[in-house]
Amino acid sequence: MHTLRKSVKFVLFYIFNSIQTFFPRVSKRDLDIIKNTRLFPGIENEYKIKTFTGVSLIKHPEDTLIFLEGEQGDALYIIKKGSVRVFTYDQHNKKIPLARLNAGAYFGEQAILGQTTKTRNANIEAITDVTLIKINKKFTDRFFYNALVKRHITEKGLTQALKMLSLSADFYNDLESIIPNLDEISILNLSKDKLIFNAGDEPDNVYIILQGQVKLQILNKKTNSYSSLLLHKGQIFGELGVLNGKPRSATAITNSDVRLLLIGKDKFNKYLSKNKNLQNVLAKLRQIYQIPMVGVVEQYINDVKNMGQAITNIYKMDDGRSIISSHFLNQDLFMMHTANHAPKAHYTYAIGNNKIEIGVTDYRIISLIVHGCYENLPAICHCILSNEFVDSTVLTNFESTGRLITHTENDEIICECMSVTRSELQKLIDQDITNLDTLSRETGACTACRGCLPKILQMIGNNYWLSASIKKIESHNNYINSYLITPKDKINLPKPGQYILIQAKVNDNWIERPYTISDVYPSGELCITIKKRKNGLFTQWLFENSQKENDIYVTQPQGIFTLNQSTESLCFAGGIGITPFIMFARALAKSPEPKSIHIHYTVTNSDDLIYKDEFNALSKILSVSLITYRITQTSGSLTKDIIVNEIKSFNSPDIYICGPEGYVLFIKNILQKMNYDPTKIHAEAFVYAGIA
Predict the structure, then answer these.
(1) Most buried among 16, 124, 145, 464, by the most CB within 10 A?
(2) DSSP code for 280
């Protein structure tokens, strides 16, 4: 009986809708409902018209889809009777309810704003039997040019987009509440094959894909050819240029009709500072960028069965192979394998919590599993992607050293951050290009963490490593230690704010890292203060060996992030970025006529504070309010108003900023908007080196 009633209802609704298609009729009550939406100013003048072109009634039974996300839209709907549900799907294809709309509400208006693409941005289904007033685009065009109406609809679309993202993935959580100012975001609708930005453009926005697919074209400088990275709904791009403050490194083109959310760089940096999950995603993406990009690559954020969420790349190779890599978001695990191929032999290297296993068939590596961190990851990925032959000696050596040294050893990666090889640099050096700045400009080497600087200087004939030893002298908390560096040769007296590069042999691999000098002793010994990184190969080794003195190599002090003692100084420190500023304060305390200085020190919780007692003591010596402590867990994040007020309390001070990338860029962007003198802005961002 129930099935019969349902069938009869479908027939009656079909007849009703068919009549409305050919003989649309709307009543005075329908006109009042349209008027009450406030979408159609001036509709009173239309009351004289009994039949409206483009306006009709339509009925849908309960539990039926009215339209699907991504469909072309040419009409909006007002609910005359009944209720509908607005919903979307997350990246796991799970249904996410967004809203329930009842009589008098409207939907479908976003697709008919007169933009390039007219696709639906959500799914609509009938919760009950519904009667809808359908208004075609040719009717709405007369009204939607009204500025107030258009602004109202646009803001509604932005709010809905933020809500959809917040609900669709953990790493967009709280997006809706953190970005309440809609003036700093926008939605861009583009048809297929439209340019979004060019390589070399200055970064201004970060983009999130709401619908469709975007293609990033990336130039491989070694082969002078382009690779393509295809991104899908829910993915973010354009963030690297914003975070690094450097021109775009890729060209972005739409690969279908797309709908993009644009977030201004200032707003994005503020949002990023409050979202640990998104910070984790971007850190994983930075690691993925170090893996060679060849052929056509499709990228997804997906759930791997029984293993968790991962960023997955599918490489389509010219020889017909498909290679899949997965970088897991919530665990230290990376996997890469050639599809439809099973390894015949396995080779394993393990040390501590790190374990690397490669699978080999016919002397070619076809799979890789990394538990923990591994600095030679790009090299092994290159072997898999290039299908390179490796002999038994190389494989045996891997099991004992963890290094994969093939016949292309001269192509070892010198700059892990930018994946620049020795041969790439050597080719330029052979052309008598031996200037460091020129080499960096041509290859990108030494433009991020600078850990590769010593190797590059060695290649151009400048070998300046000094033998030294390192030992722990103080634990500030469970994850921040200070270490004493004792050079065995004479070392130059550093300026406040300079750093040294340290080279150490970790797990049979030589690793270089830069660290700011936090103290200098009359004997010539130096102190550095280091925060332990969860995945940091060097810091893990250093903390595990803190009970003994270890042999290392160091460089002479270097860097231009130094104190100008002739002017007033305002310093912003984020986390471990406080290390250069303790040197600033000590230097001024010894000065006969010290200039004013103030340090704004931001940490997540009180356990992160270091040097607090010494800063308080130095405040008394300098007779100034030397430092302000901001603990974000209790006082909230640093804001634009706080920064501006700090600057106003000084007379055109030199401003120093040191801390994580997002923190540094957030403050720099505020200063740029203030048109602050760029010669008075000094910034040092902490960028982690390599895959570790």
Answers:
(1) 124
(2) H
Please tell me whether residue 115 adopts helix, strand or coil conformation. Answer: coil
Q: What is the DSSP-derived secondary structure letter of residue 177? A: H
Please answer whether residues 452 and 436 qualify as being in contact, where contact means their C-beta atoms are separated by less than 8 angstroms.
no
Torsion 478-416-579-518 (CA) sign = positive
Name which of 548, 490, 564, 502 is nearest 527 in CA terms: 502
Helix, strand, or coil (residue 92): coil
Amino acid identity for residue 471 in this structure: K
What's the CA gap between 30 and 80, in Å, rounded?
A: 8
Q: With contact defined as beta carbons under 8 Å apart, do 9 and 61 qualify?
A: yes
Residue among 290, 297, 289, 363 at smallest CA distance from 324: 297
The beta strands (E) that lie in 244-386 are given as 251-254, 258-264, 296-304, 308-316, 322-328, 333-338, 345-351, 354-361, 364-371
Alpha carbon distance 222, 108 (integer Å)? 49
pLDDT-wise least confident of 19-28, 327-336, 393-402:
19-28
More confidently predicted of 79 and 13: 79
User: What's the order of all strands across the beta sheet hosting 123-126?
Assistant: 65-67, 123-126, 84-89, 95-101
Give the separation between CA 505 and CA 527, rounded to whole angstroms: 20
CA distance 437 to 428: 12
Spatial CB neighbours of 567, under 8 Å, sequence gap ≥ 6: 595, 653, 654, 680
251-283 pLDDT, tens per residue? Answer: 999 998 888 888 888 788 777 777 777 777 887
Q: What is the pLDDT of residues 582-598, one digit of tens each?
A: 999 988 888 888 888 89
CA angle in degrees (0–180, nearest 5) for 541-547-552: 55
pTM above 0.70, yes or no: no
Q: pLDDT tens, 410-446? A: 466 677 666 677 888 888 888 888 777 788 778 877 7
Spell out where 443-596 has E strands: 466-475, 480-487, 499-506, 509-520, 526-531, 550-554, 569-574
Q: In what order do the strands lie in the sheet with 205-211?
A: 185-190, 258-264, 205-211, 236-237
